[in-house]
């Protein structure tokens, strides 16, 4: 009985850590998105490929999408593996 309790406790801790990681990545994605929008708006006056601020802003916009998608994929895979383990 004690070993079963320990296993449930470990699973709950892993679940909590995974949710925290997904939430952290989601927050970082939103921060990157906001940073990208601000950089793009500030540097929009000189619209060409030599405008470093604009290019960095676009990079933040693209990177935020990748971070968000990866975070959601990790969360979905973790949820799915939990559902399969319960069966």
Automatic annotation (TrEMBL):
<feature type="transmembrane region" description="Helical">
    <location>
        <begin position="21"/>
        <end position="44"/>
    </location>
</feature>
<keyword id="KW-1133">Transmembrane helix</keyword>
<keyword id="KW-0812">Transmembrane</keyword>
<keyword id="KW-0472">Membrane</keyword>
<feature type="transmembrane region" description="Helical">
    <location>
        <begin position="50"/>
        <end position="71"/>
    </location>
</feature>
<protein>
    <submittedName>
        <fullName>Uncharacterized protein</fullName>
    </submittedName>
</protein>
